[in-house]
Amino acid sequence: MPKEQRTSKREQMREKRAREAQRSRLMIIAGIVVLAVLVVGFVITKSAPPTPTGEVAAVTPRSYPQADMNTMGDPSAPVKVDVWEDLQCPACLRFSENIEPLLVENYIKTGKVYYTFHHFPFLDNNSASKESDQAASASMCAGEQGQFWQYKEIAFFNWNGENQGAYSDSRLTAFAEALGLNMEQFSACFQSNKYKAQVDQSYNDGVALGIASTPTTFVNGLLVTNPNGPNLVPTYENIADMIEAALSQ
């Protein structure tokens, strides 16, 4: 083989090895860059703050005489009042703000009425978020610490629309924090959905009674209606009239 050809082949081999070495270096550099991006992304993710829950508005403390989980009053009172509500129901919010305090002051405090709140979480039946069910569960977990009624009120007060995120899990947890609950106990209860069976049973009991909307109220087992219209929510006067009638018997 001529000398010139031997020299040309050696040069080609050197150039080939140089290209392969350069390719290897580039692949190593690219791998380092990718690894660095992954590490930075992981650090940012781990250090990023949790999804914001928004400000939790405080509520004015109320009186809840002889509160025991979702009940108030003397269990031996002559009149039993049962109300079915959904914590996403705007009419229930108004009931809680305007009617329930009058019942507390005039009948529950005086030992005339034993009052029970029943969960009827129907407004998220067609929603994947299940905010009514989650709020019901959270309120019962708060009830374990003697704060069912306070939790119900803070939830209502911070509600801003059906299945709009007002009752996301982070918000429901923030309500518990705002009330000063033992968060380890609350979180264990809430995350395990401890009261699901009880909430489901309450809902099923309401369905068996023919309840299709909230709030729905019974006095000694009798449905309270508004005489001004079959689809109108009963007023305080409607409920009080039935309580007085029951007391007079």
Description:
This protein is an alpha+beta fold and 249 residues long. The protein folds into two domains: 1-48; 71-247, Glutaredoxin (3-Layer(aba) Sandwich). It is built from eight helices and five strands. A hairpin with a 2-residue loop joins strand 4 and strand 5. The radius of gyration is 32 Å and the shape is elongated. Mean pLDDT is 85; it is low at 33-52.
Average of pLDDT: 85
What's the CATH superfamily of the largest domain, by name? Glutaredoxin
- Count structural domains: 2
CATH class of the largest domain equals Alpha Beta
Going across the major beta sheet, what is the strand order? 1-3-2-4-5
How far apart the termini lie comes to 126 Å
The biggest beta sheet is recorded as: 5 strands, mixed
What's the total number of strands? 5
Low-confidence stretches: 33-52
- CATH topology of the largest domain: the name is Glutaredoxin
Strand content: 5-15%
Brief overview, please?
By secondary structure, the chain is of the alpha+beta class. The protein folds into two domains: 1-48; 71-247, Glutaredoxin, CATH 3.40.30.10. The chain is 53% helix and 9% strand.
Show the helix and strand layout.
Layout: H1 3-47, E1 71-72, E2 79-85, H2 90-108, E3 113-119, H3 131-143, H4 148-157, H5 169-178, H6 183-191, H7 196-208, E4 216-219, E5 222-223, H8 236-247
Parallel strand pairs: 2-3
Antiparallel strand pairs: 1-3, 2-4, 4-5
